[in-house]
Amino acid sequence: MARSRATYEYTEAEDKSIRLGFFLIAAGLLSLLGLGCCWLRPALQERGGGGSANCTVLAVRQLGERFACTFSCGAACRGTARYPCLQVLVRTSRSSIPALLHEDERQLRTNPKCSYIPPCARDDQENSENVTYKQKYWKEKVGSQPFTCYFNQHLRPDDVMLKRTHDETVLLHCFLWPLVTFLVGVLIVALTICAKSLAVRAEAIKKKKH
Q1: How far is CA 26 from CA 31, 32, 173, 191, in A?
Q2: Is residue 167 helix, strand or coil?
Q3: Which long-range contacts (CB under 8 A, 24 or more apart) does 138-143 make?
Q4: Does 30 fall in a domain?
Q5: What angle do CA 72, 73, 78 make, to 5 degrees?
Q6: CA 190 to chain CA mean position, Å
């Protein structure tokens, strides 16, 4: 019996391979759990109750109010600048009530009063020029042409988004890579055990023949 058990003992390389497999399995499961609780569930809640619609620009205007933004000019250099507030009011195909357009959910959370947050520059004038360029874009290039927008009646019924932060591709990757990690770990463990089992059987058959 002792000799039979000894033949089933794993080598150092096989032991490391099995440990790597179990590590990948645990990492995949923890990633799925963490992403599901901390990121995927809020993303699905944002998408729940929402949908797409056709939007048409009603008005484009700059408010007198200015908002602060933080710029970076080096590793240890940070400062505060200001930018004007641009509002793009649209009418959706789902409602006759005007809605405020935003770039995406992140921009909506950062500044719910404005439709656009420019890349923060050190010079306030540059920020103003970026906002003015965006204003001309919506007035002259888009104008009355309909475009696709997104809304969420449960979270922000009076706001619409130009694009979604959490689209289908991001949600797919949220599931895909932890699942791949889990499956690779299972495959490594299974192959290592199967290879050891076959090697032991081959050795036993060889001993019987001799």
Answers
A1: 8, 10, 18, 18
A2: coil
A3: 138/57, 138/60, 138/88, 139/57, 139/60, 142/57, 143/57
A4: yes
A5: 50
A6: 32
Q: How many residues does the chain have?
A: 210
Residue range(s) defining the domain that contains residue 77? 51-165
Task: Give yes or no for a contact between 163 and 115, defined as CB atoms under 8 angstroms apart.
Answer: no
Structure-derived torsion over alpha carbons of residues 95, 168, 32, 48, reported in degrees to the nearest 10: 10
What stretches of the chain show up as alpha helix (H) in DSSP? 2-7, 12-35, 41-47, 105-110, 124-136, 168-209
Residue 102 has pLDDT above 70, yes or no: yes
pLDDT of residue 5: 45
On whether residue 208 sits in a domain, the answer given is no
Query: Can you state the angle between helices 168-209 and 12-35, rounded to 10 degrees?
Result: 160
| Shared-domain flag, residues 177 and 134 | no
For 73-87, what is each residue's pLDDT tens digit?
A: 776 778 899 999 999
Higher pLDDT, 192 or 95: 192
The 10 Å CB-count burial string (b at 16+, else e) for 85-98 is: bbbbebbbebeeee
